[in-house]
């Protein structure tokens, strides 16, 4: 697999907590951060998870 963790994914919440970011930092920065939407594995009724590439965050 990816030994160097180049493609490690991080959730929006984890990124905000680990790097002390705000929503505007993730939404309105240039260049725009791309993300993958996945169903929440903890509860399908909750909102979808936004997964970002950790290297870009």
TrEMBL record:
GO terms for cellular component: nucleotide-excision repair factor 1 complex. GO terms for biological process: base-excision repair; nucleotide-excision repair involved in interstrand cross-link repair; nucleotide-excision repair, DNA damage recognition; UV-damage excision repair. Keywords: Nucleus, Zinc. It is found in: Nucleus. GO terms for molecular function: damaged DNA binding. Residues 6-57 form the XPA C-terminal domain. It comes from the Eukaryota. InterPro entries: DNA-bd_dom_put_sf, XPA/RAD14, XPA_C, XPA_CS, XPA_sf. This is DNA repair protein complementing XP-A cells. It comes from Struthio camelus australis.
